[in-house]
Amino acid sequence: MTVIEFENVSKSYEKDKPVIKNLDLKVKRGEFITILGTSGNGKTTLLKMVNCLEKKTSGSLKILDKEIEAWDKTGLRRKIGYVVQSIGLFPHLNTEENISYVLTLQNKSSEEKRKKAEELLELLNLPHDYLKKYPRELSGGEQQRVGIARALASSPEIMLMDEPFGALDEINRRKLQEQVKKLQKELGLTIMLVTHDIEEAFTLGSRIIIMHNGKIEQIGTKEEYYQSENTKFVNEFLSEKLKFVYIKDNDISLNELKNLR
Ligand SMILES: Nc1ncnc2c1ncn2[C@@H]1O[C@H](COP(=O)(O)OP(=O)(O)OP(=O)(O)O)[C@@H](O)[C@H]1O
């Protein structure tokens, strides 16, 4: 089933200066789409259009088979978790309150909120006594886990993640990447994740998008990037790094790789 469908979508912040141009994209349920591209190419704008933070200028955008304009904004946002680099936890709320914030808005009982917070904390590998800690008492990686738990609290079908691991050190980043990949499979989530980290995009993505000049320059699985001809821009963008990722994950020799190209 198609969960997100862009058809000929354009977006301009200023008249006649589109930052997204005639974009077509179908995202199926359970896909993990990662989005790469140089700075200012409309990656964040793409995500923001999906959760109504920005309005498209033209074209059609359907979420769960319904035109975006036909959705009630609050109803739609409950189906979509949003995680950004600057986590934005509420400093005056403890972990439990931060995670269950959206459930408070839905007038859920304290018992229900506690249960959900405990369940999500466990899912993200944080100890139970963290429920009472405040954001200032948590490391960057722990705060980011709580941010992800909070985004999962309304049991969303879609997760939008904008450089979610950008502020973390290498070790924490790899750990959280693995966890998110596991969660995505377990919960059957559909994820769109923006990153500047090529290795991250190719490790996590079931399909990888490379944006250029407000358009999808190329989209495909990791194998497709290797087995078909890439555009000149894509080859330059990926350069040596992609070879490293491919060899690491698939254990093929450099000679075999050269034969593929
Ligand atoms: N609210 C806004 N008002 C005006 N212009 C904007 C606004 N938000 C983004 N832009 C412009 O739109 C273009 C695309 O921005 P966007 O944030 O989507 O790019 P990005 O690919 O996510 O960039 P980065 O990789 O640097 O985060 C940029 O030129 C940016 O300056």
Automatic annotation (TrEMBL):
<dbReference type="InterPro" id="IPR050093">
    <property type="entry name" value="ABC_SmlMolc_Importer"/>
</dbReference>
<keyword id="KW-0067">ATP-binding</keyword>
<keyword id="KW-0813">Transport</keyword>
<dbReference type="InterPro" id="IPR027417">
    <property type="entry name" value="P-loop_NTPase"/>
</dbReference>
<dbReference type="InterPro" id="IPR017871">
    <property type="entry name" value="ABC_transporter-like_CS"/>
</dbReference>
<dbReference type="InterPro" id="IPR003439">
    <property type="entry name" value="ABC_transporter-like_ATP-bd"/>
</dbReference>
<dbReference type="Pfam" id="PF00005">
    <property type="entry name" value="ABC_tran"/>
</dbReference>
<keyword id="KW-0547">Nucleotide-binding</keyword>
<feature type="domain" description="ABC transporter">
    <location>
        <begin position="4"/>
        <end position="238"/>
    </location>
</feature>
<dbReference type="GO" id="GO:0015697">
    <property type="term" value="P:quaternary ammonium group transport"/>
</dbReference>
<dbReference type="GO" id="GO:0016887">
    <property type="term" value="F:ATP hydrolysis activity"/>
</dbReference>
<dbReference type="InterPro" id="IPR003593">
    <property type="entry name" value="AAA+_ATPase"/>
</dbReference>
<dbReference type="GO" id="GO:0005524">
    <property type="term" value="F:ATP binding"/>
</dbReference>
<protein>
    <submittedName>
        <fullName>ABC transporter related protein</fullName>
    </submittedName>
</protein>
